[in-house]
Amino acid sequence: MACIVIAGDVHGAIGLFYEQALKLQDELKEPIEAILQVGDLQVYSEDSHVDKAVRVHGGPGEFPQWFKEQRPAPIPTYSILGNHDDAMLFHRFAGKEIVPSLHLLPQGEVVSINIGSRIIRVGALGGNYSPKYFHYAPADLSQSKLKHYTETHINALVEKAPFDILLTHEAPDGVAIKDGIDLGRPEIGELIRKTKPQFAFFGHHHWHTKAEIGGTTVVGLARIQRDGGMYPVRY
Ligand SMILES: [Fe+2]
Predict the structure, then answer these.
(1) Degrees, nearest 5: CA angle 234-40-101
(2) Reading across the β-sheet that carries 102-104, which strands appear in turn?
(3) Residues with CB under 5 A from ligand 1 (ion)
(4) CA of 116 to the centre of ligand 1 (A)
């Protein structure tokens, strides 16, 4: 058996993130082969433009320093894009390691990850929905608009199915309901129904929830500081 952990939004607290992951590894008494992270790590450099929400919530956090020093992640990590990441910087490093052992997953792609003696396939749909940009060709998204996913990314994942795990930043519809309002997205629900992964994980909404869509176990991750921010899975 091999253990992986799916982690929620980090929002710049990367030191705490790995501290908690290593503590969890001790508690589990087995190595965590990989961490899959659902976006809003707050991938920024010192030169990045930081949006108002990030400024209000304490600035970009520790990532610019890790990036500058190229500090390695202590556990191999695979992150998707959030809406509070420098989308241009993220896309520059998508498909690569932004610091050693921290891989950024390209939008609409499926990657194969070695864990122990097996390989798992992970589909990535980071970023958030925009009614204006959803039908744009990805190549026509400029600068900060790169933080939005598009219909093209979703269709690419449908074509590349099957995969074991789907990572999205936003929730599918029907599972993240607040004050009677469904915060999730129907096109993500449809993507899950069409591709039928074993698991679909999302972040963004910062609370832990578990549901089922068409046979797929759907898990919303809390922020990493809170209960339900890290979710171990064994293969
Ligand atoms: Fe977010």
Answers:
(1) 55
(2) 97-99, 102-104, 77-79, 32-37, 3-7, 230-234
(3) 40, 82-83, 204
(4) 31
Task: Kindly give the distance from the C-alpha atom of residue 59 to the centroid of ligand 1, in angstroms, as a whole number.
Answer: 14
CA of 29 to the centre of ligand 1 (A): 31
- The string of pLDDT tens digits covering residues 23-81 is 999 999 999 999 999 999 999 999 898 888 888 878 889 999 999 999 999 999 999 99
Task: Give the tens place of pLDDT for each residue, 107-120.
Answer: 999 999 999 889 99
Q: How far is the CA of 118 from the centre of ligand 1 (A)?
A: 31
Cα–ligand 1 centroid distance for 85 (angstroms):
9
Q: Where are the domains of the chain?
A: 3-234
CA distance 200 to 169: 10
> 9 C-alpha to center of ligand 1: Å?
7
What Å distances lie between residue 22 and 18, 43, 62, 66, CA to CA?
6, 21, 18, 18
How far away, in angstroms, is 131 Cα from ligand 1 center? 17
d(CA 216, CA 162): 13
Please state which CATH number belongs to domain 3-234: 3.60.21.10
The model's pTM: 0.97
